Amino acid sequence: MWKEMIYIIFNNKRKILNSERIVGLMKKTVLITGSSRGIGRATAEVFAKNHYNIIINYLHSEKDAFSLASSLEEQGHRVMVYRADIAKRDQVEAMVEKSLSTFQTIDVLINNAGIAQQKLFMDITEDDWNRMLNIHVKGMFYCCQCVLPGMIRRKEGKIINVSSIWGMTGASCEVHYSTAKAAVIGFTKALAKELGPSNIQVNCVAPGIIETDMNDLLNEKERSSLLEETPLLRFGTPTDVANAVFFLASTKADFLTGQVLSPNGGFVI
């Protein structure tokens, strides 16, 4: 990495900036909610390899979040870690404010944070229902509202929401999860129509069965059954999903908006 100082012109005044600082300012920045583990972690790694500044959001997994940050920083990437409950607007506002003061812009927002739970419909409590909808839907709503002013002002930005195949097909014993993930898809399509004139693309990924701790709830019989229903005869990896997310954030997807990309191995066709 360069260490020399170089001149730039900023607001009609000549300033000297360390070239490392200039490289950081020239990079795009991505905010990934729920990025300490699983799909979020893999997504942070993929974006870092493609020269993005990374904002890691977590709620409970502090050790994992800082472990990821240390790994990325050792590779020369600029990283910010922020603990926030995305289901609480004031915490989202504070996270976005800190992100903007650190990196000036948020160019890509990835609404990835989520939870899973298996319960018979009649056993779902109101607290279960509210928690599922608050994290998946209200959290996405808050993050978008807080990040969008800068994107609209610049007339440029990408939002990628993480849904699930169960948001497309529904899943027995996961009615509240399926409902939340279906809402993510509907939100994506409607917001894409509204933001199109501002040159902001809003898309969605709907992963199939992915090898993450969220699927540790599955027993061996369930895993075998799902594997048999997957034409590619394997479960996906977090990196499979991360690559799909990065594609939607890239210039190659500039004419895609309101779409659902589903890396699922052929489980849903």
What does this structure look like?
Helix content is 46%, strand content 17%. The chain contains 9 helices and 9 strands. The N and C termini lie far apart (46 Å). The strands form 2 sheets. A 7-stranded parallel beta sheet has the order 5-4-3-6-7-8-9, sandwiched between helices. It has a two-stranded antiparallel ribbon with strand order 1-2. The protein has helices at residues 19-26, 38-49, 62-74, 89-103, 126-154, 165-169, 175-195, 220-228, 238-249; strands spanning 5-10, 13-18, 29-32, 53-58, 79-83, 108-111, 157-162, 200-205, 260-261. It is globular. By secondary structure, the chain is α/β, with parallel strands linked by helices. Helix 2 (38-49) packs across helix 9 (238-249) and helix 4 packs parallel to helix 5 (126-154). It has one domain (5-261): 3-Layer(aba) Sandwich (Rossmann fold). Keywords: Lipid metabolism, Oxidoreductase, Steroid metabolism. This is Short-chain dehydrogenase/reductase SDR. It holds the Pfam family adh_short.
